[in-house]
Amino acid sequence: MDQLVFLRHGHALGTREAGVCCDSERPLSPRGEEEALAAARRLLASGFRPDVIVASPFLRAARTADLAASVFPAARRETSPALSEGPAQAVLDLAESTAAGSVLIVGHQPLLGAIAGFCLGAAPLDLSPAGFVRLRRGGPRAKEALLELYDPASLKEQPR
What we know:
Layout: E1 3-8, H1 15-18, H2 30-45, E2 52-55, H3 59-71, E3 76-79, H4 82-85, H5 88-97, E4 103-107, H6 111-120, E5 132-136, E6 145-150
Parallel strand pairs: 1-4, 2-3, 2-4
Antiparallel strand pairs: 1-5, 5-6
Helix pairs in contact: 2-3
């Protein structure tokens, strides 16, 4: 079954905290590294095997894709500026251009959530850092079907 996953990058440091001047240079925090790896492992456990991983060129998304690639070493790697700059139609075109197979797209909110919602014929989805939406890819003129909406924050132990 071909699947499409939109994965938001893991938790990132702020520009000041990271000592960088540009948003594109913000790295993952240690927590973000752990969350991104956990998200990739969850995808693996669900049976997802991407044929390709496409990531935004921004450092935090590229590192999230690197961590995912360590879990999915057979996946081909690509980078697309559309995932950091938009517009949404360019990302939709990117997803559709990979006609066969399963695709992992790593990028940013609110763009990924809006596109995932559009694919489902629903409102934009709120993806937390290292959160993902996993869809069964529809055929031509068919809507995708939701398989999983993963929020790592919901897995944290709740205070008693």
